[in-house]
Amino acid sequence: MNKHLLAGALLATAMGAAPAAHAQTPLNPVQPWGSWFIATVQLPGSAEHKWGGFAEIQARTNGLFKEYFYNELKAGVSYDLDPNFTVAVAGGRYSTSDYKDLEAGPLNTEKRLWEQLILTQYSHRLKLEHRYRIEQRWFSFRDDSTAFRQRYRYRLNAFFPLNKNTITAGTIFLAAYDEIFLNPKGPVFERNRVYGGVGYQLNKHFVVQVGYVNQANYNYTAQQGQFVLQNTAAKNNVVMAFTYKFSHRAVPAGQEQLPTQQD
């Protein structure tokens, strides 16, 4: 009888330990640090010339400065309604590959169109941007299947110059933003992106920024032509961004233009 009791106790212990062991398996495994490289050519609008535009190329790696897997090509036009309100229309091509097998071609490519509104607030030093964006997204997968999705985005972006009151030539500045991504079909809360960095505007044309971005996905991702719930942890990335700004001849040399990242 004691043997039966002992066997039952051992079996109950084993059954109870199995879920615990399973629960200890991380659902969101730790992700390696990645890298983002961004190069932008920009023509900002102004009070004298309201039309502007940009073109950008971006590459990302799964590891820190290694394991390339993703790129973006995008461009758009903007119009300054006044110094605090800017509207824009833009589009791009986004390609995602398996960094272990780049020769096999992209896992999926995305063509994207978006419309956005930026509201800017200027204080003595602190500059704030509220960006509202609506995206239309067309996916093509390696197995020839396709999909269409929409997305809404809101970003609160802050800039703080350290050695001047405005961000002009010779200014060192801090930059930070938080952006949420919303899916109208659900799950509603799709992604959160947090950035912090430091930048330097060399002259009226060149701006360099180095920073850190944490991107957490809560959305459905594409696998074999289907959208399935993503199961990855938030990923940390080092960001290196380089911007060349054209300027209209009539724009004063000291006029402030915020070093906004287009992504």
Structure explained in plain terms:
Strand 11 and strand 12 form a beta hairpin. Strands 1-2-3-4-5-6-7-8-9-10-13 form an eleven-stranded mixed β-barrel. The N terminus is likely disordered. By secondary structure, it is mainly β. It is globular and about 55 Å long. The protein has one domain: monomeric porin ompg (Porin, Beta Barrel), CATH 2.40.160.
Output the strand order for the largest sheet.
1-2-3-4-5-6-7-8-9-10-13
Stretches where pLDDT falls below 50 for ≥5 residues? 1-26
What Rg do the Cα atoms give? 23 Å
In CATH terms, the superfamily is monomeric porin ompg
The number of distinct structural domains comes to 1
What top-tier CATH class fits best?
Answer: Mainly Beta
Mean pLDDT: 85
The total strand number stands at 13
**From N to C, what is the helix and strand string?**
HEEEEEEEEEEEEE
Helix content: under 10%
Strand content: over 45%
CATH topology: Porin
Tally of DSSP helical segments? 1
Shape: globular
How would you classify the helix and strand content by structural class?
mainly beta
How would a crystallographer describe the biggest sheet?
A: 11 strands, mixed, barrel
CATH architecture: Beta Barrel
Distance between the termini: 70 Å
What are the SSEs and their pairings?
Layout lengths: L1 H23 L9 E10 L7 E13 L2 E17 L2 E12 L11 E15 L4 E15 L4 E16 L9 E12 L6 E13 L4 E12 L2 E4 L2 E4 L5 E11 L18
Parallel strand pairs: 1-13
Antiparallel strand pairs: 1-2, 2-3, 3-4, 4-5, 5-6, 6-7, 7-8, 8-9, 9-10, 10-13, 11-12
Q: What attributes does this structure have?
A:
13 strands, 11-stranded mixed barrel, disordered N terminus, two-stranded antiparallel ribbon, 1 helix, Porin, 263 residues, mainly beta
